Amino acid sequence: MDDKSDLIRIAARATRALITDCFAAAGLPQDDAARCAALMTEADLTGADGHGIFRLPQYVRRLQAGGFNKRPNITVTKTAAATALVDGDNGMGHLVMSRAANEAIAIAREAGVSWVGVRRSNHAGPAGLYAEMPAARGLIGFYAAVANANHMAAWGGADLLLGTNPLAIGVPSGGRPLVFDMATSIVAYGTVKKYALRGLTMPEGWFVKPQTGEAITDPNKSGEGILLPMGEYKGSGLALMIGLLAGVLNGAAFGRDVVDFNADDDSETNTGHFIVAVDIARFVPLATFTAEVDRHQRDLRASARLPGVDQIRLPGDRRAECRSERMRDGVPIAAALVAQLDKLAAELKVKRLAER
């Protein structure tokens, strides 16, 4: 069992304010700092704990070391009626992907569908953030990216040539959008870093030693192993294809060219992403589609359950539950991370979490 006694509840407004102030102190323009903070806070509120305030010390290190461009000139090149390529100029991924998502939505409104590729970006947080952006506007959203480190191998291989390359799909409904967000590895690497921070033991089946195939359960030794894909060869194949579409197609890094941003604070990562938006109204009226989505959700939730299962859960359920609970009770943050954040606040001469 995961002992949660080391977790401290912090109001989301306080975490968001700290992130904003730290980024501004590290050199980001105030509006950009606030935008990144809003998306990172949304990650924490919706349960993507490895992508929210947890990343703040690392992001600040990269800003200070020159790994991120603090004032990027993000450009959009329209390449056809329904396609565009975004050059992030090595800006923070949250800023680059926000721009790309807005472009995808605008193009899909005009052309019916859009495919926007992204190069020279950076880590942008959880995939679900960006798939939800079109879905919240009545469009279908697809998002995928090349992860910022290679922790996996081709199925049966021992060389780290694949990332945990995420995929997310957002679909509007009569209520909140359905958002499916997955890593192609058996577990997201941010979860592994959280385990290390909190001194937890990993389950067997996450990492194996390349020399022997033995399980690694100490998260501090994860760098010595291979992170296994979800669904065996299926996850490996999906990670490969996402890498080709988000990386190679956009002139972004893939395979041996990927820079491990966990170990390197100053190199440009040239991270690649893509986002697709589909205008539902080009196929059926939006109201008809969302009514049908709701009907099918009711059928699925009311379906017979296997023994021991108390509830059928659908994509986005956990996100919604987390958001409601954490808005009410605060974001759970490990005591070890709070200590790191206090140290960071002191270094940047901003108020600590406890003072907000």
Structural write-up:
The chain has 356 residues and is α+β, with helices and mostly antiparallel strands. The protein has ten helices and 14 strands. It has helices at 12-25, 30-45, 56-65, 93-111, 128-135, 189-198, 233-246, 286-301, 317-329, 335-348, and strands at residues 7-10, 75-80, 83-87, 113-121, 139-145, 150-152, 162-163, 167-171, 178-182, 207-208, 215-216, 226-227, 271-279, 331-334. Strands 2-3-4-13-5-8-9 form a seven-stranded mixed sheet, with helices on both faces. A three-stranded antiparallel sheet has the order 11-10-12, with no helix packed on it. A two-stranded antiparallel sheet has the order 1-14. Strand 10 and strand 11 form a beta hairpin. The longest helix is centred in the N-terminal third of the chain and has 19 residues, at 93-111. It is globular. The mean pLDDT is 96.
Nutshell version of this structure?
The chain is of the alpha+beta class and 356 residues long. The protein has 10 helices and 14 strands.
SSE order in H/E notation?
EHHHEEHEHEEEEEHEEEHEHHEH
In terms of quaternary structure, the protein is single chain
Uncertain parts? none
What structural class do the secondary elements suggest? alpha+beta
Mean pLDDT figure = 96
Radius of gyration of CA atoms, rounded to a whole number: 20 Å
Strand arrangement within the widest β-sheet reads 2-3-4-13-5-8-9
Largest sheet, in brief, is: 7 strands, mixed
Into which percent range does the helicity of residues fall? 25-40%
Assess the beta-strand content as a share of residues.
15-25%
Distance between the ends: 32 Å
The coarse silhouette is: globular
Quickly count the helices: 10
